[in-house]
Amino acid sequence: MLVGKRASSEEPGGSVVDELMIEATGVQKVYEAGGLRVRALRGVDLGIRRGEMVAIMGPSGCGKTTLLNVLSGLDELSDGDVRIDGEAIGGMSDKRRTRFRAERMGFIFQSYNLIPVLSAIENIELPLLVAGKKPKKARRWALDALEMVGLSDQADKRPAEMSGGQQQRVTVARSLVNNPAIVWADEPTGALDSETSKGIMDLLVRLNGEQRQTFVLVTHDAAVAARAHRTILMRDGNITSDEQNGSPRGEGE
Ligand SMILES: Nc1ncnc2c1ncn2[C@@H]1O[C@H](COP(=O)(O)OP(=O)(O)OP(=O)(O)O)[C@@H](O)[C@H]1O
């Protein structure tokens, strides 16, 4: 596989398949810390289709990040069931779950999480090298990914030599370099001004349309959520609304 070398769909976001990819049933998460018990998720039911871009919104502390983390297997759930392509991630061993994540998922966080001493291209190819890919192949895939996010000319720059928007585009390239089936993004535009944020969303919407990946993103920004196919609202550990977004979502809207 090579990212960026596959056929584009006819229109941005025109690639949702009528098939559930992520299925959460009765998901609960309880944190216990220092004698305190916080019920962060109180029985969430949710289905996400292949190729869908879903935004999760809601007030601070309502459980958005927790939901992302238990759906992706970054964190363990306390009760309920999460299935991805029919496989229950709660039933996997730690080793299997880590591999499942490395092979099938990409992550984008607000705080870029780039390694400062590595160049853009080295940051992107690192997960491939860790996964045991040959250096030549890792470099080729990383260059493709960098091209896909429009940063081919920045390959040798270190994070500190790039703008926030450019750094976030590097993390987008890194999250996509292994052609994951699902990309999880926690506040991907949270640290960016509105213009740069729009540029990142143009990129994610385009990739979602072209690459047919499923995107689940947490955001506080209604303009960001409007670019998704669907918006889920949370409150106090529950989903309180789950609606398709009506308006067009292509670039430049
Ligand atoms: N590791 C943890 N230990 C204990 N409590 C936690 C932990 N992580 C989150 N919580 C609590 O769980 C609840 C949900 O937190 P979460 O981070 O999922 O909310 P959020 O909606 O993503 O918030 P924000 O928008 O501020 O990022 C909050 O009450 C939070 O304090």
UniProtKB/TrEMBL annotation:
Gene Ontology CC annotations of this record: membrane protein complex; plasma membrane
Keywords: ATP-binding, Nucleotide-binding, Transport
Pfam hit, one: ABC_tran
Domain ABC transporter: 22-253
Protein's recorded name: ATP-binding cassette domain-containing protein
Matching InterPro entries: AAA+_ATPase, ABC_transporter-like_ATP-bd, ABC_transporter-like_CS, ABC_transpr_LolD-like, MacB-like_ATP-bd, P-loop_NTPase
Domain of life: Bacteria
Gene Ontology MF annotations: ATP binding; ATP hydrolysis activity; transmembrane transporter activity
